[in-house]
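Cross-posting from the chemistry board since nobody answered there.

I work mostly on the small-molecule side, so proteins are not my area. We synthesized S-adenosylmethionine and want a rough idea of how it might sit in this target. Sequence and SMILES are below. Is it possible to get a predicted 3D structure of the two together?
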Amino acid sequence: MKAPLSAYREAARYWLREVIGGMRHRRQLRAQGIDVSSVSLRQLGLDRRVAHNHAYSGGPDLERVLRDLPIGPDDAALDLGCGKGGALLTLARFPFGHVAGLDLCGEMLEIARRNLDRAGLARVELFQADASVFDDYDGFTCVYMYNPFPQGVMRQAVDAMEASLERTPRRLTLIYKNPRFHDEIVRNGVFVERCRYDHSGHPFVVYGSHR
Ligand SMILES: C[S@@+](CC[C@H](N)C(=O)[O-])C[C@H]1O[C@@H](n2cnc3c(N)ncnc32)[C@H](O)[C@@H]1O
């Protein structure tokens, strides 16, 4: 059976927008001397029980998600597992009062610092920490994750965010790309799924806190 013409048109539109647009975006980054290339766990020297590979998730897809959120100068965003700072480059172009990234790996953070400086975003704070023990979420209203670590670490991170909400009640938004451990996020009913974006290879899910 032949596919209707509209299906071909839709596929062509997808290619133009996602694939060509994505390639153009990465070319622009390279031209600025910004390195967001992927890195394997072996290259990172990390154990797969505590970490996942590095990959970039900033750019037009994340922009589309952020555009739908009410973001103002009282908001502070944290990229949990920020790697080379790719998503931070996008987060920092929205009107958050504060943007920060943490990563387990010092080498990733050095590259992130260089990338952010080259993009004129030196104000973004970076620090080295392990998300399985990090618990300093009180100053943040938005946490971003691109499938950074395995289930056990995700559970510890969600527990720490929930403890922070107990201490300091506020609106806390989670944006989780490639949400493999969605069940860990909603396990205690503190975070609920608000919306889902399927416009890229890996979906983004936005969760809001009840507290
Ligand atoms: C998929 S990359 C995400 C990069 C960035 N967030 C982006 O979207 O462009 C995941 C990053 O999480 C970091 N990571 C993995 N396990 C971690 C942990 N337990 N604590 C902190 N960072 C971790 C890795 O070093 C890697 O740089």
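Reply from a structural biologist on the board:
Welcome over. Reading the output above for you: The pocket of S-adenosylmethionine is lined by residues 44, 50-52, 54-58, 79, 81-83, 86-87, 102-105, 108, 130-132, 146-149, 153 (CB under 6 Å). Helices lie at 5-31, 41-44, 60-67, 86-91, 106-118, 151-167, 182-186. Happy to explain the token format if needed.
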